[in-house]
Amino acid sequence: MAVPIAVLDCDLLLYGRGHRTLDRFKLEDVTDEYLVSTYGFPRQFICYLVDLLGATLSRPTQRSRAISPETQILAALGFYTSGSFQTRMGDAIGISQASMSRCVANVTEALVERASQFIHFPKDEAAVQSLKDDFYGLAGMPGVLGVVDCTHVAIKAPNAEDLSYVNRKGLHSLNCLMVCDSRGVLLSAETHWPGSLPDCTVLEQAALTSQFETELHKDGWLLGDSSFLLRTWLMTPLHIPETPAEYRYNMAHSATHNVIERTFRTIRSRFRCLDGSKGTLQYSPEKSSHIILACCVLHNISLQHGLDVWSAPASGHMEQSEEEYEQMESVDSEACRVRQELLLTHFS
Fold this sequence. Notes:
By secondary structure, the protein is of the alpha/beta class. About 50% of the residues lie in helices and about 10% in strands. About 40% of the residues are buried.
């Protein structure tokens, strides 16, 4: 019996577990319930991803050319939605944990390449007006083009520039700046900022600021909380409201801005690799940033497919902004004038 066992072991070493079982898992052989419980998404969504990413994932590489796009996508979804490379998940689709890790890397990069296709502000006037109308319908706040906030995602301590990623809680993290619409669709996502940077600094240095100051709509604004400076294109709450109009403005601002907080909760519920329940992301800051952005792309695609943004229960430990709401006083007189005009015109 010793000889056959030795031959079998050599076969495993030569070809790997995945080589023998790559074709045994077929989407049509399992139920939607199984796909949702194991990989987080139904069959139609997974098939869409195969069509979208198939050509990219089929590019021949020395390591993973034998693994089908379908299998790579299932492996990546399994990691994004569970936060771990579980042996049983690799066994289900017939690949090793090492192969799962390579699949996650491949799918992540394919999604990041398409980020601008799925995460962007509307361009045409009708879509911009619809965006404003939808926000106005929430709490009567006019002119809103998006709600902006930061959220922290925990990562392992990097090998270099260690202190730049230590946030105010003493944890290593990335500070992610995001904007969403009234449905929770992400319009902007910058996921690479070191956790030591306060929200106001992130926004100051972000591409979003350049975009709004040089390109975007002069007749609208984003809504941000008190950790940001008031700008002509960014309305913040009044620090100490005194008049009825100021109270009404703050109430409408809070009710509208709450959309981004709900969106953060939904993203961490759907993508458990981000919520800290399985530990921090065990990757470099750059790779962790790409995983977060890939999850943002999948979040938007899921909304396109009618997967309700508010359907997932809130859970987990994904860090909200580390700001202790230092009251950021604006020195921009034009921004103060714009907010005062908004108060007088719509809340008095």
